[in-house]
Amino acid sequence: MGCLIALAAVAIVVIVVLLLWYLLAGRLRPPGPTPPGPKRPTSQPASCPDVQLLSIPGTWESRSDDDPRNPTANPLSLLLNVTNPVRAQFPQSRLDIYTVPYVAQFSNPVALPPDGQQSYNNSRSEGTQRAQDELAQMNKTCPLTSYVIVGFSQGAVIAGDLAAQIGANRGPVPADLVLGTMLIADGRRDIGPGQATEVGAAPPGVGAEVALKGLNVPGITMTGPRAGFGAVADRTFTICAPGDLICDAPRQALTPVNIIPSVLSLVRAAGNPVHAMYSGFEVDDKGTTTTQWTTLWAEGIISDAPHPAHS
């Protein structure tokens, strides 16, 4: 009798196992390939530009209510020396230039009395959001438009962060639509694999946010180096003048341990003579300045950009 009960128990177990295998077999199979996303259309609206140049000005060179297609917040803005001559080379059907309007300030957190400016964190966040929103909206409306991204100083930090996100497939536009990115005086500049290609001689220092990684005082968070530019690294470039503490800070000279001197050095760096002279800083032995090189670079890749069909 005992043997019969044991055999019956074994039979029940076998039946249960077979039933579970049958019911769950489909669920236990390895997942198949992810279905491809929606295909891009073969044409886009006639109002769409072939290329958009996204320009992100530096500290004190923009304003939240500035006109993105006719910026007047600061007539001396460095990147106007790039966008104005580039604009003159192409019709509006070929090129749209959008200058990101944002507060572009950097409050000194130890100033007494307070200087009344927006903090770096708030300014950088607004600039980033405005840039992301514009790229996302343009891509939604004009899915075949390609992009050139240019940033200076605080704008270079924003532009570089956007490029890194796009290169990691986490950005507002697909990586293959980004023709190139130029970062002038990038506060997160670093040297190594996957980083931006240096135009001209590469200074030995790093961006202030890299040198000050870990510094976190009210309104100023230093985020350290980027992981790299991923899929867009081969077309991301940077220019840094030797001695510009925004992008050429000695790795150990500014430390979170010395918070007050570090913050004061960082605030002063935004207005130092080297940082303010990129329109005359030469990047090669032919005397080509930063803005001239960037203009020629942008004009070249815009000329070579695809000509999507329009409907």
UniProtKB/TrEMBL annotation:
Transmembrane segments: none annotated. Residues 111-132 are annotated as: Disordered. One of its GO terms (molecular function) is carboxylic ester hydrolase activity. Residues 116-130 have a biased composition (Polar residues). Gene3D superfamilies: alpha/beta hydrolase. Keywords: Disulfide bond, Hydrolase, Serine esterase. InterPro entries: AB_hydrolase_fold (IPR029058), Cutinase/axe (IPR000675). It holds the Pfam family Cutinase. The keyword Hydrolase applies. PANTHER family: CUTINASE 4, CUTINASE RV1984C-RELATED-RELATED. Belongs to the cutinase family. This is Cutinase. It comes from Nocardia aurantia.
